[in-house]
Write a structure and sequence with these properties.
Length: 153
């Protein structure tokens, strides 16, 4: 075996990274308490597992142990909000029903006014037709009288 190799030495192309990228990284290393750089996503703990044997309440999504009283309090606040919204919706339904009753009454009144006006219109048309016939009769009679007297038109 020979100790010479055919591989060329490319060590001139290699860069040495000796500098720190963060000039203050030594300060961060010396601190006792360090805040996370990336905030974790907040889990709303909507899916919960209740263990009767361990007497624990845990989130099924993130696995965090939940304080039972705080979780029950959040449920109670949600129920209170739903109760409040239901009361508002029932009040709106009541207002809409009253408005609907007023509209129904107004519809009945409008129909009655239309019917009354149609009767009056019918009476007026009847009187107009009667007056028109009387006017035709009188004009014919006037023509006949004028012919008898010899008056030219």
């Amino acid at each position: 075996m020979t100790e010479t190799t055919d591989i060329t030495d490319n060590s001139d192309n290699v860069l040495a990274f000796t500098k720190r990228f963060d000039a203050n990284s030594d300060i961060k290393e010396m601190r006792n308490f360090v805040e996370d750089d990336k905030p974790k996503q907040h889990c709303s703990h909507t899916n919960v597992r209740v263990s009767e044997f361990e007497r624990k309440v845990t989130c099924r999504n993130c696995g965090a142990a939940l304080e039972a009283f705080d979780y029950l309090l959040s449920i109670a606040k949600g129920e209170t909000k739903i109760d409040w919204e239901l009361r508002l919706l029932r009040g709106e339904i009541k207002d809409h029903r009253e408005g609907l009753e007023k509209l129904k009454r107004e519809e009945v009144n409008c129909k009655a006014r239309i019917k009354n006006a149609s009767f009056k219109l019918h009476d007026l048309r009847t009187e107009t037709d009667k007056a028109d016939k009387e006017l035709k009769f009188l004009t014919e009679r006037l023509g006949q009288v004028q012919k008898l007297r010899g008056v030219k038109e």
